[in-house]
Specification:
The protein has about 120 residues and is of the alpha+beta class. The protein has a domain of about 70 residues: 3-Layer(aba) Sandwich (NADH Oxidase), CATH 3.40.109. It is about 35% helix and about 20% strand. The chain has three helices and three strands. It has a three-stranded antiparallel sheet, covered by helices on one side. The longest helix has 24 residues. The chain is extended and about 65 Å long.
Length: about 120
């Protein structure tokens, strides 16, 4: 998902490793619309759909991550993904199995106050 002109050699090498850390990587794009209002609405609808997919996958026990492609309109990247030239990449979705759970945040002790009517 990188064009050879992206960043310096070290940044390119580091970025390339992240695509191998997940069993599944989905690239989601949206076709540009000449009407700005429709373009924005379509892009936002795609983003909402992505969020719903992430929530659904998480509810099934998968680990998820919303990533942003470094190059959203590179002809080489679009071609690699099978997208037409007028598509813009909205999301790179990583799906897999968590190696551990998140740390529970510290919480203050619960206080209870009962008010009689």
């Amino acid at each position: 998902m990188l064009d050879c002109n992206f960043g310096d050699d070290a940044k390119r090498a580091k970025t390339l490793t992240k695509y191998l850390r997940s069993p599944a990587v989905l690239v989601v794009g949206c076709t540009a619309d000449p009407k700005p209002s429709m373009h924005d609405e379509n892009r936002d609808a795609v983003a909402a759909g992505i969020q719903n997919m992430l929530l659904g996958a998480t509810s099934l026990g998968l680990a998820t991550y919303w990533g942003t492609a470094p190059l959203i309109d590179s002809p080489r990247v679009l071609s690699l993904c099978g997208f037409d030239a007028d598509v813009r990449i909205i999301n790179v979705m990583y799906l897999g199995w968590a190696t551990g759970g998140p740390d529970a945040p510290s919480r203050p002790p619960v206080t209870l106050q009962v008010v009689d009517a």
